[in-house]
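#lab-general

N.A. 3:47 PM
ok so I finally got the sequence cleaned up, no stray characters, all 120 residues accounted for. can someone with queue access submit it? mine expired

B.Y. 3:52 PM
send it over

N.A. 3:53 PM
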Amino acid sequence: MKRILLAEDEDVLRMLIVDSLEDEGFEIDEATDGGEAEEFIASSEYDLILLDYMMPVKTGIELMKDIRSSEHNKNTIVMMLTAKSQKSDQEAAHEAGVDYFLTKPFSPLQLVEKVKEILA
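B.Y. 4:20 PM
back already:
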């Protein structure tokens, strides 16, 4: 079973994503802010990390340093989920080591299909 860390501070969106991915058989750990995500990154190994760009405690961009220096997750695929759609934001995410970028709003089906494609 593929393990995914979802770091998303919006409760409704987080629940929708978790339900959609669990229905497809993925195992999901949920972080409600960058601090919780940092703890998961330090202690667990993931096949994919889904990061919100803007979160309390630590942003998704700030967490990329933790991910890429993590013993467990330095090579883990990372998808940034964000309402920030400007080219400069995407460039900053890619420079930080983000592999994929999905702009909000998106449909749960769109996310599930992208996750399946990435983890195939």
